[in-house]
Amino acid sequence: MAHAHSVLDFHSFSAQALAADEVQLIESSVAQFGAPLLLLDCDVIRQQYRALNNALPNVTLHFALKPLPHPAVVRTLLEEGASFDLATSGEVDLVAQEGVPAERTIHTHPIKRDADIRDALAYGCNVFVVDNLNELAKFKAYHNEVELLVRLSFRNAEAFADLSKKFGCSPEQALTIIETAQAWNIRIKGLSFHVGSQTMHPQKYVDAIRTCKEVMEQVVARGLPALSTLDIGGGFPVSYSQQVMPIDQFCVPINEALNELPETVQVLAEPGRFIVAQSVTSVASVMGQAERDGQMWYYLDDGIYGSFSGLMFDDAQYPLVTLKQEGEYAPSVLAGPTCDSIDVIAENIMLPKLDNGDLIIGRMMGAYTSATATDFNFFKRAQTVLLNEHDQSCERMIG
Ligand SMILES: *Cc1c(COP(=O)(O)O)cnc(C)c1O
């Protein structure tokens, strides 16, 4: 017990049987490619993007690559007309390779090396984020080419990741940055924030939007050029073991707060988790087993150092299912393959007696999972299998 990271408990184990066609898909994929696998369903990416787009009709959605930087995700969203949020030169390379027009991108890492700025500019991305004067000074050399967003900090203890501890400035500091930028001839496009990943309450956005509105009014009151843009960041929640508010309902108060802004203000968002979390199903197989202290230990070919790295770096409670449902259930542990003792995915869960080679399915495995996986102990990362890569909705309508 007592690991530093979160280990899934029995709440995460869903005895719900899988649909027959899904079982067949999983088994045929394992027969073809072996385990472990990540099944990435591009149709789910489309559905989530469309759902958020409908819920935030006047907001331009820039998908943040960080939770799942996979080329198929970029291609699928590009076809949907999405824009993109980049943070590193690696992410710049990925969207460039997939033919994303640079005008559809913004670079939002608040702390950059000069080379990071140059790489993004060479690609054609010219919107960047700053939250302090040291960073602002880096743009003196590029003042003719760039437009900046100033990132504000709004603390959020409840979120999976409180992204306002490490980044963001106060409204007062933002005004100082904007005045200094004016003196240095650097264009400030607007404000941004990130209320924290997996934010459960829309009020966090509402409060942040209101504060940004006040800063925008003070900018005008001080005789500085009016700001044209507000970027409300990511953080939109998904249902893991705990149900969250449907996205339409979640966005109602956010839209109301946005409606209070001057009509000239263009609004952006940077969703990551919401777009990709539900799109990936993980498939791991039992490599071996032992009975220890009255519990059955099953050693899987994927674990904390692999696709389940989110148990370490994120706070998600991935629902797990066994393909085998029949037999006597006993208290069990699911462990990862490495020789490290922290490599445990779930304990105190009731499982039927499993055989070596039996499959364990993980739901909601798209965000901050494979993205943070390692090759520790030379266990290869799970391969990704693409499903529904091409939009078949037209054909399906005909059929
Ligand atoms: C991680 C990140 C995002 C995505 O956040 P989600 O909570 O996954 O929606 C968006 N913007 C920035 C700047 C980030 O660092």
UniProtKB/TrEMBL annotation:
SUPFAM superfamilies: Alanine racemase C-terminal domain-like, PLP-binding barrel. Residues 44-277 form the Orn/DAP/Arg decarboxylase 2 N-terminal domain. Its cofactor is pyridoxal 5'-phosphate. The active site is at C339. The keyword Lyase applies. GO terms for molecular function: ornithine decarboxylase activity. It comes from the Bacteria. One of its GO terms (biological process) is putrescine biosynthetic process from arginine, via ornithine. GO terms for cellular component: cytoplasm. Pfam families: Orn_Arg_deC_N. The modification N6-(pyridoxal phosphate)lysine is found at K66. Gene3D superfamilies: Alanine racemase, Lyase, Ornithine Decarboxylase, Chain A, domain 1. The keyword Heme does not apply. Keywords: Lyase, Pyridoxal phosphate. PANTHER family: ARGININE/DIAMINOPIMELATE/ORNITHINE DECARBOXYLASE, ORNITHINE DECARBOXYLASE 1-RELATED. Belongs to the Orn/Lys/Arg decarboxylase class-II family. This is Ornithine decarboxylase. It comes from Photobacterium halotolerans.
